[in-house]
């Protein structure tokens, strides 16, 4: 068994698609109409057949409340691995991404946390 799709609640699918593709550099894999919303997934450009990130609309009241509460507490909604966290941090800062935690060493891992502008904090980790 393996993970093929993981979802992330977002406030606006178009805004999220733009941020995750243009700013973070993920590649759109699927964009399928699903009634009022769309099934939008992205993948790492280095792993086109890897785990897909689903930009899930937060239109359900429970999803919206969950997203708001973890954001208010500063809890990252998910974590992305990077090869060089300082380089990625610098690149994202130049693009205007706001960080709540700058690169910080935690044992053998260095982490940083940024605001995805779509209702989530995202953690980056270099191991």
TrEMBL record:
PROSITE patterns: VOC (PS51819). It comes from the Bacteria. Residues 1-127 form the VOC domain. This is VOC family protein. It comes from Planococcus shenhongbingii.
